Amino acid sequence: MNRTDSRFGVFVNNYIMRTKRGGTNIKETIVSFMKEQAYRPLLLEELMEELNIDQDQKKMFKKILEEMEKDGQIMRNRHQRYGIPEKMGYMTGRLIGHWKGYGFVDSDHPDISSVYIPANMMKGALHQDFVLVKVKYEPTEDYKAEGEIVSILKRGLVEVVGTYEKSKQHGFCVPDDQRFHADIFIPGKQNLKAANGHKIVCKITSWPENRRNPEGKIIEVLGDPKQPETDMKAIIKKHQLSEVFPKKVLKEAENIPLEISDKEMKRRRDLRNLRMVTIDGADAKDLDDAVSIEKVKDDVYRLGVHIADVANYVRSGSGLDKEAHKRATSVYLVDRVLPMLPPQLSNGICSLNPQVDRLALSVLMDINKDGKVLHHEILESIIQTDARMIYEDVSDIVENEDKALMEKYKKLSEDFFMMKELSEILRSKRQERGAIDFDFPESKVVLDDEGYPVDIVPEVRRTANRMIEEFMLACNETIAEHFYWLKHPFIYRVHEDPDPEKMMRFNQFIFHFGYTLKGKQSEVHPKTLQLLLKEVEDKKEGKVINTMMLRSLKKARYTTDPLGHYGLAATYYSHFTSPIRRYPDLAIHRIIKNHLHRGKAMEESEDKKMISRLEETARHASEMERSAEEAERESVDMKKTIYMSERIGQEFDGLISSVTSFGIFIELENSVEGLVRLSDMDDDYYQYDPDHLKLTGERTKKTYTIGDAVKVRIDDVNMMQREINFSLIEGR
Fold first, then answer.
1. pLDDT in tens, 556-598
2. Alpha-carbon distance 297 to 389, whole Å?
3. Domain 159-225 architecture
4. What is the model's pTM?
């Protein structure tokens, strides 16, 4: 490399300016250089020589390397040599703590996805910290990889939600999240006069050293945990979710015109004469998808999926866009929704309310009787929905031919029956190729006006729910495949093939119930799992096999790589149909509009910039999705626990959902799950059979296994840990 032509010299000299403009090429180039096969760890001076960095650039270059160290992109060993962690026997990742003091580090390492960290190797690291790990033992068939934490690159949680335990001179914050295993010491003057047992938000001011507890101060008192609002606030704070929008963002939303300009109307395809409806839940307010259907030939349906054109109003780089990106998803807690976009948009101009003009992105698909999309068109449109339908009414029409509803919607009823026909064709096609449908029974917690749970009722997915689901799946696949063949930068929704080791363990698990996975466990086709689910559908062990299968699969995520969707048995898949509540969908809308307006391929430099932006969006959206799911699940579990705490002493019928060495888990008919501890089963001494997941009495030979019907009594409820303890009344 010629020193006078060195692009590194230019990069380093202009590093600060480039960073402000979003330029990170220098870091990417350093990483690429260190990943080369011939690279060996180099000292700072050696690295500067290899990259033609002048001595007067040394200070800035060293600063860049220090930043990369903090980010975990590179590392420096004890001999002061720089390299890629993975090539030097190390790895970086996020620590997932355990209440017993040990943890696991999850990583994107190609060969080691998770490393076990013993408690004595944690080095003061806590749950969610980003850490550098020395891998000591490589994974085998029987054991995970094991390692020790070398350094904490970035602290994960600075603010912790917990319960205040007060003493005379000081107090402690006991974290709600048990994975954050250390209580936080709070000096007396830093307690904001919080009452003992109240929920608080604690900011950590000093981190643990030499096995000492972290120290902190109370920055917010949430209140009495017995009040429903307090626990919900705790969940929102714990997951760092936002209840309110910044004033600037709200003002920006308020300034968006509520009328569509003539210019905008003229440049779009006018589909207002096309009969279409929205079909949603009764309490939905953000109606972002509408559907239309017609026959273009005897055996060809034209399905229209029309999605609110949110990107027309939320412009890239605006305050609205930045806030939507930060949130990444709407969060549906048990008693409220934390929307991605302000209600002025999501429930207003972007909601496809009936009988009003709305802007949309429409996908028109011609589908034959075999479920094949023969032709499709993607376009910007102006639409007007004919009716705001709910799942229950449409289901009553197509399932029961409800006369009153058919009369009320006589102009639409024929469309609903045609939609049912097409959805069954699409569903049959998906099943034929091997798509896995987990159909877990769901329940809904009913709350009173003050937020207290008064009932838990089943939620049923009926025909109309499945119709809309099939149409959205078909549309999302069509969009993903379209942009794959264009070779355009894109965000895919992917679900990678399962880990062979997990499939092997799952096969061992189902073997004890008399089932087995056919074929190679290293290449289990989704069709194999689909057939197993059908086989166990009405069996008592069916639900636990469903659950264990789901746990054996990888989590779906967003990425710019078209890796396919295993669970759907789809080669290409995306999320396009919910831009009001998911940021990746909004990003895809912008990609589509950009392509429609340009009408030509992107320059290579533009292509790379867009991929870089989309990769960051995909990563952030995947993380926020997991956080939202945790918060949603916790909010439901919390209300279920409160509901059952008021029924201590009452008896219920249930089924054994799991058998362990310390007891049996029982699921009640209302979906609540609790534990009968082995130590409380005092009518006999029970032996645990791990191979068959069974408890057997030594004297009575009485057995308890998965799927058995039992009657239980609620003994006590641990509100903090959200645990419900049962005792057995009688067997089957």
1. 999 999 999 999 999 999 999 999 999 999 999 999 999 998 8
2. 27
3. Beta Barrel (2.40)
4. 0.86
